[in-house]
Amino acid sequence: MQNPEFSSQITPREKEVLRLVAGEFSTTEISAILKISNRTVETHRKNIIRKLNSKSLVALTKYAIMLGMIDDYVYLPAICKKAINPGFSDKSGLRICDC
To answer: What is the Cα–Cα distance from 87 to 99, expressed in whole angstroms?
Structure first.
């Protein structure tokens, strides 16, 4: 997940779109709520994904929760073995987490 510092790169309109995407609204519903075209909603979504270097809408939703944009959810960072024991690794030598 990306650092919340990236939120300063997102425009206020993109934050509105992000909040609605995370709220499970469809492109058509978002366009009606914000009174913009479906194409504009899709463009905002693509710009947010690019700016946050995300790979999916799920990642965007997680990010919105981290920023406190979704009232129903609270972000609590997980504690994992690699946080407790940074030397924990698999056969390849890569650090892993089995949380």
So the answer is: 16
